[in-house]
């Protein structure tokens, strides 16, 4: 059974098409990363699938059942959510938040164990209003785990977390997946999702432009990694052509004493360096960059990321400006 089914979902806000005929199926037990630049439509899609926002068109099914406002309570009990603009009750302690969540879901979890899972041991008695943003995020993640939900929907769960917190979050995702939960989470950072995701969907301008494993996306995009090479002086056109002619090189760019080579398939980095040196170019230094989300966007769309499709040019970062 599919845990999440979006079928032809569209949503407009005035001149902005937030979701454009979006279809997506996430299978039960899957860890699915939902990636896209600011304003791509990630939160809108999540809000639609949680029935916080009514789509203009399309169907949504969660855990096999259609989402309907008046009937969604039983489904909600099986879903744990870390929403985009979460808030905490400032004067209530972290532990109290969890006690309420446990009571309201008639679960039998120990709030202190939940605090420990998200790295808040020792802070449970403090008012949540005194927590840092990252600590509040951890608390809301712990609340999402209450009742061992069948489906976890996490909107940008790593944002605001320190590296330790981001690691804990990934561990929690793995633990939840190991007990059979489906996890759906959004991010705009590929590195944060690739460690835990079975599959990734890339959304841009409200449209799903690719769905695959991260390895599959890299392979299909032909942009497995990018080699940044510092060279002594301007490289000759012949040297750059020698690199271009290597199998598996998808792009070669030079700017001053910097050469950027995008590698697809299985070309060896040393082959690139050798080709430059054989053409008389002095290689001073080099480093490899992992394919970034932007590289993947470029590979998939042949252009930059994050353009808006609105009639205005004022909402490049519309997702953040509300
Ligand atoms: N309530 C709203 N009113 C007006 N426009 C909205 C509203 N919600 C979303 N939008 C617009 O829809 C588009 C998609 O926004 P959304 O928040 O879904 O993007 P996102 O991918 O979650 O972005 P981010 O990574 O910045 O959180 C944006 O252009 C945004 O301005």
TrEMBL record:
Lineage: superkingdom: Archaea
Any Pfam family hit: ABC_tran
Record-linked CDD domains: ABC_DR_subfamily_A
Residue span(s) of domain ABC transporter: 4-230
Keyword presence, Zinc: no
InterPro entries: AAA+_ATPase, ABC_transporter-like_ATP-bd, DrrA1/2-like_C, P-loop_NTPase
Region of interest called Disordered, as start-end residue ranges on this chain: 298-322
Keywords annotated in UniProt: ATP-binding, Nucleotide-binding, Transport
Biased composition (Acidic residues): 313-322
GO molecular function terms attached to this record: ATP binding; ATP hydrolysis activity
Family of this protein: Belongs to the ABC transporter superfamily.
PANTHER family hit by this protein: ABC TRANSPORTER, ATP-BINDING PROTEIN (PTHR43335:SF4)
Protein name, UniProt field: ABC transporter ATP-binding protein
Lineage: Archaea, Methanobacteriati, Methanobacteriota, Stenosarchaea group, Halobacteria
């Amino acid at each position: 059974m599919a845990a999440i089914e979006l079928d032809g979902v569209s949503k407009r806000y005035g001149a902005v098409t937030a979701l454009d005929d979006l279809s997506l199926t996430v299978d039960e037990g899957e860890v699915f990363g939902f990636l896209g630049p600011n304003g791509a439509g990630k939160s809108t899609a999540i809000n639609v699938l949680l029935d916080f926002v009514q789509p203009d068109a399309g169907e949504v099914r969660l855990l096999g059942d259609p989402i309907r406002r008046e009937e969604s309570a039983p489904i909600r009990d099986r879903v744990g959510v870390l929403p985009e603009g979460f808030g905490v009750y400032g004067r209530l302690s972290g532990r109290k938040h969890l006690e309420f969540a446990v009571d309201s879901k008639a679960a039998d979890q120990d709030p202190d164990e939940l605090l420990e899972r998200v790295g808040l041991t020792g802070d449970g008695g403090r008012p949540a209003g005194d927590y840092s943003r990252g600590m509040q995020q951890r608390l809301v993640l712990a609340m999402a785990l209450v009742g061992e939900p069948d489906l976890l929907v996490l909107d940008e769960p790593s944002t605001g977390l320190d590296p330790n917190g981001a690691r804990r979050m990934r561990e929690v995702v793995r633990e939840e997946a190991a007990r059979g939960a489906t996890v759906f989470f959004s991010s705009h950072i590929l590195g944060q999702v690739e460690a835990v995701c079975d599959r990734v969907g890339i959304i841009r301008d409200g449209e799903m432009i690719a769905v695959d494993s991260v390895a599959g996306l890299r392979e299909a995009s032909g942009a497995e990694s990018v080699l940044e090479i510092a060279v002594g002086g301007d490289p000759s056109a012949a040297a750059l052509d020698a690199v271009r002619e290597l199998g598996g090189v998808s792009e070669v760019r030079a700017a001053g004493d910097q050469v950027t080579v995008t590698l697809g398939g299985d070309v060896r980095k040393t082959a690139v360096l050798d080709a430059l040196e054989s053409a008389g170019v002095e290689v001073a230094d080099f480093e490899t960059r992992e394919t970034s989300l932007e590289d993947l966007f470029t590979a998939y769309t042949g252009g930059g990321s994050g353009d808006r499709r609105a009639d205005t040019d004022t909402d490049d970062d519309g997702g953040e400006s509300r």
